Structure formats: structure tokens, C-alpha cells
Amino acid sequence: MYDFNFAPVLAAFDQLAIGAWLTVRLSCAAMLIGLVVSIFCSWGKTSGPKILRAVIDGYIEIIRNTPFLVQIFFIYFGMPSLGLRLSPNSAALLALVVNFGAYGTEIIRAGIESIHKGQVEAGWALGLSRAQIFRYIIMKPALRTVYPALTSQFIYLMLNTSVVSVISADDLTAAGNDLQSATFASFEVYITVTLIYLALSVGFSALFYAIEKMTFKYPLSR
Amino acid sequence: MIRVFGWNEFLIIVVAAQWTIALSAIAFAGGSIGGLLMALMRVSEVRAFRRFATGFIRLFQGTPLLMQLFLVYFGMNIVGFAINPWIAAAVALALHASAFLGEIWRGCIEAVPKGQREAATALGLRYYHSMRYVILPQAIRIAVAPTVGFLVQLIKGTSLASIIGFTELTRQGQIINNATFSPFLVFGTVAAIYFLLCWPLSLVARRMETRFSRATAR
């Protein structure tokens, strides 16, 4: 019978906490920058020139149909031959942004397309300014529509960050790997790390739910 | 001695794709059985079943696939099996697929209008027959597009098996890259093969989805 030994894992818990903190920061940074990329690309896809549309389409299809792991390898090992040498952590951030950007674009575009044309025309008729129409008639309802999809994409992104440990970025999984090679308590280490990830995803879901309740107070009209 | 990335290296990578395909097929087959079980448990009238399936799905959707692979890989040691990347990858991916397919298919079963179930009951059909002849045939039609979509995710997921030392497409790419030092060509080739495997599936899923939404639009 196997003897479980969690003592060395608990003794080095601060290492895991530091790794978890990097995972959180990396995910949040990638989400924020990725959102900017997504908003730009969804604008380009809905109303940009034809060439830009084709480029963005290609970007989305390539990212969505290749594994994240290969994207990281491509960026981390491939970029230096173009003269761009990145640290593991910045390569990880770049890969996450590029990945999230593709999925985010599709989500936000769907949201913008869900806005009925008549709504915008009604805004003009009411004498709203261009900025007001964009803010109140397009962006706010669109964001509310896509908010659940965006948050679950964020959770997916956060779980995906575990893969960046392969290029020795120092996230939670990497901290787990270090601890595993120091203690040989493989199963105990990874079950602890898995539980931390679970806590993070449950925590973020709860946070997003609270934000949703506070931000989109007015009832959904259909 | 650095090897040059040539025709041979290219072929080695292409041949390694068979392991990616094999692993995806096994994970999908295992995941289909597990997923059907999970979906039926989720819509079951027995509370213990519902609870178990909900917990299983939450656990697998709330933790990274990489951790699931590690846990199965190192967990095999605990239950007394020799550590084997092949079996570990297949089992972990099948469990992962069970959770995701279970959740997708539950949605499809619930998308069948409630009146159908009531009509089946009114006709005197018991649970098995109403599922077998009334609910599931309709749910399957709704399920095809999202299932093909998930298959893409699963094929991409098999790349993580390389981290526990299973030599499939990505791992073979790494090996060749270590020998040739041409990451652009190597990982470009690897990415292109994944793309060729996944893109047709993505297109099929999307086309079926639009066709279906047009068919059911009111």
C-alpha cells in the first residue's frame, strides 16, 4: 500500500503560492492585452478593408486549429531566429495573448453582430452622438451578451497557462515540477497543485458572477 | 554534429502524426462511452447520480488537462501499475473527454423539447424505451456539430501527452528540433499537420451548426 506523504509539500507551500501568484498575474495580463487585440480584430473583421479581414481570418483559423503547446514552442524557439529573443515569461505572455486574441475576436464579433440594426438607427433618431451610440447601444449590450463566453474563455486561458511551464516560465505548474524533483512525492505535489488550480477557477468564476450582478443590473429585454 | 532539416526529418514528423491520430481516436472512443454515461447521469432522476456526474464534470473542467495527465501518470504508480505514458495519456484524455462530452451531450438531451418526453410517457413508454426511441435520436442530431467541434479540442489536447514522454507529433517535433536546430521549419511543419487534421473538422462543425440553426429557426 502506498504511503501518502504531504509533509514536504506543505513545508514548501510558499513556493507553490509564489507560482500561483504568477499564474494569476500572467492570466490577467494576457486577458487584458488579449481583449485589446480581440476588440481591434473584431472591428477589423466587421468593418475593416478586405485585406485586413483576410489576414485576421487566417490568424484566427491558424490559432484555433493548432495546439497551444506548439504555438509556445514556435514563439519561444522560433522567434530568436527572427532576432527576437524573449525571456520565458514574456514568451509565455505573448503566446497567451496571441491565443486568447483569436478566441476573443470570435466571441466579441458575435456580440457586436447580435446588436439589431434598428437599435443603432433608433439611437440616431434620438439624436445620440456617435460615441454615445457606440458606448450605450453597441458596446454595453454586446458585452453583456458575450460576458459569459468571455469569462469561461478566461478560465480556459488560466488553465492553459499550466502549459507554459514547458519553456520554464515560473508559473504554478513549474513550481510544482521543481518541488516534485526535490521531494519525489510526485502524486502529492500534483494533487496539491491541481487543487490550487481548482480553487483558482472556482474563485474566478465566483468573482466574475459577482461582477456580472453588479455591472449588468438592468433586466435583459427581449 | 547538427543534422540538417531535410526530407527525411520531414517524413519522420509526418509519420509521428499517426500516434496523434491513434491517441485522439482512443480518447474519443473512451470519452464517448464515459460521456454518454455522464450525460445520462446528469439528467437522471436519481440524485446521487446527478451529484456524482456534476462533481466529475466540475473537477475535470476546472483543472488543467496537463495536471490530469500528471495525476494519472503518477497515480498509476500508486495503484500498483508500472508507469506507462501510452496508457496514462489514453486514460487521462478519455476521462477528460468524458467530462466535456458529458456536459455537451447533457445540453443536447435537454434541448429536446419537454413535450417529447411527456408524449413518450403518455404513450406508456418506460425510461429505457423513451430514451432509446424518442429522446436520444433527436438529441444525437443536435449533438453532431458540437461533438465534432470538441474533437478538434481533443486532437489539440493530445499534444500535451508529449510532456509526460509519449512520442506523438509534438514530441517528435521537439526531438527533431533538438537535432537540427531549425525551430521555424520543425514547428511550422508540426503546426501545419495539426492544422490539416483540425481545420476540416472545424469547417464541418461550423457548416453543420449554421445549417442546423437555419433548420430550427422560427
TrEMBL record, chain A:
What membrane topology does the annotation report for this chain? Multi-pass membrane protein
Any one GO MF term held by the record is: transmembrane transporter activity
Q: Which domain of life is it from?
A: Bacteria
Which CDD domains has this protein been placed in?
TM_PBP2 (cd06261)
Q: Which GO terms describe its biological process?
A: amino acid transport
SUPFAM superfamilies registered for this protein in UniProt: MetI-like
Q: Which family does it belong to?
A: Belongs to the binding-protein-dependent transport system permease family. HisMQ subfamily.
* Protein's UniProt name: Amino acid ABC transporter permease
Lineage, opening ranks: Bacteria, Pseudomonadati, Pseudomonadota, Alphaproteobacteria, Hyphomicrobiales
UniProtKB/TrEMBL annotation, chain B:
Spell out the InterPro entries in the cross-references: AA_ABC_transptr_permease_3TM, ArtM/GltK/GlnP/TcyL/YhdX-like, MetI-like, MetI-like_sf
Q: Where found in the cell? A: Cell inner membrane; Cell membrane
**Domain of life per record:** Bacteria
Membrane-traversing stretches: 12-40, 52-74, 86-105, 139-164, 184-205
Q: Keywords in UniProt for this one?
A: Cell membrane, Membrane, Plasmid, Transmembrane, Transmembrane helix, Transport
Q: Which Pfam families match?
A: BPD_transp_1
PROSITE patterns of this UniProt entry?
ABC_TM1 (PS50928)
Asked whether the UniProt record includes Cell division among its keywords, one would answer no
Q: Name one GO cellular component term.
A: ATP-binding cassette (ABC) transporter complex
GO BP annotation list? amino acid transport
What's one GO MF term for it?
Answer: transmembrane transporter activity
Q: How does it sit in the membrane?
A: Multi-pass membrane protein
- Write out the similarity annotation: Belongs to the binding-protein-dependent transport system permease family. HisMQ subfamily.
Stored PANTHER family:
BLR6398 PROTEIN (PTHR30614:SF34), MEMBRANE COMPONENT OF AMINO ACID ABC TRANSPORTER (PTHR30614)
Q: What is this protein called?
A: Amino acid ABC transporter permease
| UniProt lineage | Bacteria, Pseudomonadati, Pseudomonadota, Alphaproteobacteria, Hyphomicrobiales
